[in-house]
Amino acid sequence: MNTEKSTALFAEAQRLIPGGVNSPVRACKSVGCDPRFIQRAAGSKIYDADGNEYIDFICSWGPMILGHNYPPIMDAIRKAMEDGASFGAPCAREVELARLVTEALPSVDKVRFVSSGTEATMSAVRLARGYTGKKIIIKFDGCYHGHADSFLVKAGSGVITLGIPGSPGVPDDIVKNTVSIPYNNEEVLEKTLRDESLDIACVIVEPIAGNMGVVPPAPGFLQKLRDLTAELGIVLIFDEVITGFRASYGGAQQKFGIMPDLTCLGKIIGGGLPVGAYGGKKEIMAQISPEGPVYQAGTLSGNPLAMAAGTATLTALKEPGFYEKLDKKAADFAEKLQGLAEKYLDECTLNRQGSVMTLFFGKGPIVDYESAMNADTDKYAGFYRAMLDQGIYLAPSQFEGMFISAAHSDDDLEKTLEMTEWSFKKLQK
Ligand code: KE4
After folding, report:
1. Which CATH number fits domain 72-317: 3.30.70.260, 3.40.50.300, 3.30.460.20, 3.40.640.10?
2. Cβ(121) to ligand 1 under 6 A?
3. pTM for this prediction
């Protein structure tokens, strides 16, 4: 594959931008190659600066559930642009998206829009602390909630991928207010939440973990978490930045029938434009400024273009049967992928929840951060590079998800399986 334009762009980018990228995982450090610079995308495909075509399974890390350049979304953005890019004032488009979000998520009486998932989660945690007057937050090893200081404790996503314990620059007196415990471990969960020495404001959880690779909740885990937090007056925050409008139209909370106190959203609700959101029970949301004393603000919050893109996205996702069809396509693909992996790999574990999956190059079961660490990241890196050169664009990290979109055709998936078998054979040599 000719990648000279990407190479030149990466050289220039590294001169101007730390690591040449605006988000660490994109630098492809853990998979031993330089990143391809993407020029355009349409449907299930993306095209790099040298014109190479790839079948895309990153889908912008989740937002592009309908595929790239989906016409109703692009038309909605174009139409909104005619009215102006940003007002810094309330507009009808914010109300329209807020209505769709609150109708979709029964636990969300009120919602506040922000510009990223990190803003959503950091604001939800501040709100929980303001509402309870307590300070400790409980998170789970391997879960990632964005790059706010409080979350960079045994975090997932780029933090695992780059093998960094946390991050310099996060003061100890911030870190000491974050307690990270193993995911899917009810015994440690109960012991921690009942520890009276801990002044716990909230628990924040990915209801389906997606940042240590995909790790679904063990049966009963989320219910146990809900029961304990309700009993102990601890705010339960579902970080549904990935799972919101992905696991189902009502997110993981609808899929599992668990009602959190607060929900964080991002990715899909922006249709590819920068949107995050947090929302929940009106008595908690009433604490947020200007209604209440807990401050949170944002210049581009509720941006009309982003609201239009989000509204067009959610409107399309309301189509009856959308999720059943998408999940069936993903299940059929996963079954064949699993078959190939078992045929060619000594150790492999495929974890899937709906249309998001991770093929771990390690023995299972993979149910938490510790077992995810069994994965052979060098083998994954070899697989990644082989697939990339065959025009298949996977996450440049063993600890991320593979996203199936409505735009992935049977031919795309068939080709991907063929290239997977080719890559496995290459890895065996
Ligand atoms: P953003 O600030 O990146 O919009 O959202 C942070 C976030 C919060 N919660 C969850 C569950 C998330 O997965 C994320 C961000 N996800 C990563 C990839 N898994 C974004 C990709 C990147 O960091 O470049």
Report:
1. 3.40.640.10
2. yes
3. 0.97
